[in-house]
Amino acid sequence: MSSIGLLAAALLNASGKGVALASEFADMPALKGKDYGKTKMRYPDYTETRSGLQYKDLRLGSGPTPKNGETVVVDWDGYTIGYYGRIFEARNKTKGGSFEGGDKDLYRFRLGSQEVIPAFEEAVSGMALGGVRRIIVPPELGYPDNDYNKSGPRPTTFSGQRALDFVLRNQGLIDKTLLFDIELLKIVPS
User: Fold this and answer.
1) Please, are residues 109 and 116 in contact by the beta-carbon 8 Å criterion?
2) Calpha distance 84→37 (Å, rounded)
3) Which phi and psi (to 5°) does residue 143 adopt?
4) What is the pTM of this model?
5) pLDDT tens per residue across span 17-38
6) Fewer CB within 10 A of the terminal residue: the chain, N end or C end?
7) DSSP 30
8) What is the mean pLDDT of the chain?
């Protein structure tokens, strides 16, 4: 075999390993097997509400459902669907890990107070305590004026803020649809 042939074979072999390695690190379990990232997609395994929110219960809760005015405590993850499924928030866990963590780092808000984006409020208000729900958030139910500082939940890391901001401020080139995984951990009566 010529030296050019050996070099070509070595490059092909190395590039194949690089692709395999990259795919290991880019695995996004929340997005696996879906054609996310296309505006206004409908997913048959999700329930769609009148507002356009799509959700799927990953684990049904067995407790009560929160009422308007009550404070809820949730754990959540956020993904930018139109930006390669990039995680912009993964609280208390590694990418794709299981829900766990102490109460101090969890997110709290009062239902009906408009502290959070409309999709988040709608999703949590229909959950039972202990449930885990995955929601697909169309841009009109997301962050007002494409600014995560105006409504929660907000990314807590600089890299998460940067990823979300990049998607929200992009003018028409990237789909602004988001995906959240939400676990309802506690309901505090008003």
Assistant:
1) yes
2) 8
3) -75, 125
4) 0.74
5) 333 333 333 344 555 545 544 5
6) N
7) G
8) 78
